[in-house]
Amino acid sequence: MLDEGAELVLATTDAGSYVMVRVVGDLDLESAPVLTAGLKAQLGPRPIVLDLSGVEFMDSSGLGVLVGAHKEAAARGGALVLAAPSPRVHKIFKVTKLHKVFAVHETLDQAVEAVVSTVPATGSVTDDQG
User: Fold this and answer.
1) DSSP 106
2) 3-state secondary structure of 53
3) What integer best gives the mean pLDDT of the chain?
4) pTM to 2 decimals?
5) Could you give the CA distance from residue 128 to residue 10 in angstroms, rounded to a whole number?
6) Partners of 3 in the beta sheet?
C-alpha cells in the first residue's frame, strides 16, 4: 500500500509477524498527519518496523508522531522499532535522548532481526529460553 501526501510517501508491507512501513520524505509539520494516519492504520499487537532510510529531515512534529505511535503501540501490546535513520536523523534522536526510548537500529536487517527474535521496543533483550 502506498500513501502520498505532503511530500511524504509511506509504503506498507505485511511481513506476517510484523509490519514494515518505509518512509520517504521529510517528517515535519506539513507531513506529520500523513505519518500519523499511516501508523494508526497499522497499530496493533504486531510490531511495526519503521524504515527511516528515506528520511533526511525531521522536526519536532515528526518526533511527536513517533512518540505518540510508540506509546499507542505499547498500549496495544505491539512495538515501534526504528530502522536505518540517516546520520542527521539519528543525531536528532541522540540530542533529544529519544534513542533511550526507542529501539533504533542502524540497518533495516538489524531491526527485522531484533523484531523476529522478540527483542522488545525498549532495546533490552529478553530470555525466552527459561
Assistant:
1) S
2) strand
3) 88
4) 0.84
5) 33
6) 10
